[in-house]
Amino acid sequence: MELRQIEYFMAVAAHQNFSRAAEHVHVSQPSLSIQIGGLEKELGTRLFDRLGRKVVLTQAGELFHVHAERALRELDQAEQVVQELLGAKRGRLVVGALSTVNSYLIAPLVSRFKQRFPDIHLQVHAQASADVVSGLLSNRLDIGICLLPLTHPQLTTVPLLEERLALVAPAGMNIGKRRARMQDLARLPLVLMPVDYCLRKMVEAECAKAGVHPQVVLEMSSPEGILQAVAEGTGATILPELYVRSRLPGMDLQLIDLYDPTPRHAVGLAYLTKRHRGLAAEEFAAICHTTMRDLQSDPERSRRNRPRRRAAGQK
Amino acid sequence: MELRQIEYFMAVAAHQNFSRAAEHVHVSQPSLSIQIGGLEKELGTRLFDRLGRKVVLTQAGELFHVHAERALRELDQAEQVVQELLGAKRGRLVVGALSTVNSYLIAPLVSRFKQRFPDIHLQVHAQASADVVSGLLSNRLDIGICLLPLTHPQLTTVPLLEERLALVAPAGMNIGKRRARMQDLARLPLVLMPVDYCLRKMVEAECAKAGVHPQVVLEMSSPEGILQAVAEGTGATILPELYVRSRLPGMDLQLIDLYDPTPRHAVGLAYLTKRHRGLAAEEFAAICHTTMRDLQSDPERSRRNRPRRRAAGQK
DNA sequence: TTCCAGCTATAGGTAGCAGCTATAGGACAT
DNA sequence: ATGTCCTATAGCTGCTACCTATAGCTGGAA
């Protein structure tokens, strides 16, 4: 078994296509075919089903893929820890972040991080909280941003912020005021996440507290999709306020504060307790905190920074 | 970075000596030296301190060693899990089967399969023939049991059995004999599947052959539901004989043979021609055939086997 | 149906590299 | 000093991963 074979295998699995995979790893398609063939022969079974248009993993391929990915990741880390020891500010940092937090926090965060560590290859995945957790546990992520409280024996968490949830309705929908009680939700058609999502559970728990049974007219798993549906008038929804604010411009939406009680949830950093955290990870966490503090003391900052190019063009 | 380099590195770290390590990995000492040198050059640092008599890991070497070992272990496991799959020591098999066939064939089939492959996770879905086909095409099923003939370019089929269809009527309904001509159907209110089901089409085709226009009083998509409706006196129905026999006990139904002609349809195994079939799938197909043969030569067998525990308790 | 586009597998030739043996060169023990 | 034990270097050889060209297959369009 050769490392080359593993890399080619991963490329084919990712692209579901030999030719694209070949381009991606910068070899010709026949070379890649031969290597995959060799690997399959060595293992004694097909790893891919060549189904004409598409190539998909066989069951053996899927099993192999799990461990192959981890192996490559370990080798990555092996190299990285050495580089960090040498004091070189290079390497890779893979972050998993809640899609909602991703929208308002990540942009300024990434820009600060990149400024300080221009040679670190930063990779951010927007995911549901549960995916962040599984990503950390399976070692695919270096650090995660997810919902708290999170009590997992292998994970350490650091609180980062509290997100207030707010009601979002189509601009045309007549809510009647700029603030709404939780009880008012009973009257509204709602677009929420599927039931296995934390945010949905949280909303339902708050509703239960207020003695309200929400009318769910549509379930979508991405907050982005939910906002779209709301903008089209399908119903109202409940999402983190900061997230919605970052999305408001250009969408026909109204943001309504919820109170009595105001639903909120905690967000924090998480990482595998036993894993060696490199300089990059530590600094990322620190920058998370400072960025967060700045955002809260001056919520406009990130938006003022964004359209820098347009502002320059206007002068 | 090459896998070979990692292996040599591990050997040197274990033996603290290049020459011994070289013997251990079956290469000459210079070859091994060169590989280690290459690795060190790539990482930009020494991994070993050559202390004359002895060789010890540097700090960088120790950090590298941790992850390198894990990487190798993952690769080991990658190979291991594939081998276990090949030996049917793990894996899963997803089968789609006609609901009717499901009732009499699957119980003994599953019990045999589980006995032979206790470590394979078996999943059986009772579905209409069309769903089995689409399940196979979309790669959700590993193997299917559906109606024949089935001419799809991507599917291979293997005939398994011929099902005779029989008339089923409420116990109270006066049919007048134990056998009925197809023509006799004209007089009976019938509960049949919806028109887009194969079984319905089949029945209509047979009726047309006999010059009969069936009176359909109710359409239901599940054979189980149809039998319930029949037992309640809604009408008679036509279903595979073996299926009905497996359901007869405890239901107020009469089973009447049809002839002139006896409607029958073929049932077979189907799978994606180009897909790799693992040992589990092949064996499942084989067990299908043997179980089928046993059932036909001794239709009571499956029922005799079932209540083994009760029989033991009675002695 | 036929044809074309897109894909993977095979064939044959080339170059790069891991392998070898022989040997140089350094560290330690006697 | 000198022999022993070790790693590094030199020079050669054979394996193989790579390339281009092309065959063979499949699925969709005309």
Which parts of chain A are unreliable, with pLDDT below 50 for 5 consecutive residues or more? 301-315
Q: How would the global form of chain A be characterised?
A: globular
String of helices and strands of chain A: HHHEEHEHEHEEEEHEHEHEEHHH
The CATH class of the largest domain in chain A, by name, is Alpha Beta
CATH superfamily of the largest domain in chain A: Periplasmic binding protein-like II
What's the architecture of the largest domain in chain A in CATH terms? 3-Layer(aba) Sandwich
Describe the fold and architecture.
With about 325 residues, chain A is of the alpha/beta class. Chain A folds into three domains: about 5-80, Arc Repressor Mutant, subunit A (Orthogonal Bundle), CATH 1.10.10; about 90-160 and about 265-305, 3-Layer(aba) Sandwich (D-Maltodextrin-Binding Protein, domain 2); about 165-265, D-Maltodextrin-Binding Protein, domain 2. In chain A, about 45% of the residues lie in helices and about 25% in strands. In chain A, strands 3, 4, 5, 6, 7, 10, 11 and 12 form an eight-stranded mixed beta sheet that branches. In chain A, strands 1-2 form a two-stranded antiparallel sheet. Residues about 300-315 of chain A have low confidence and may be disordered. Chain B binds a DNA duplex (30 and 30 nucleotides) through α3.
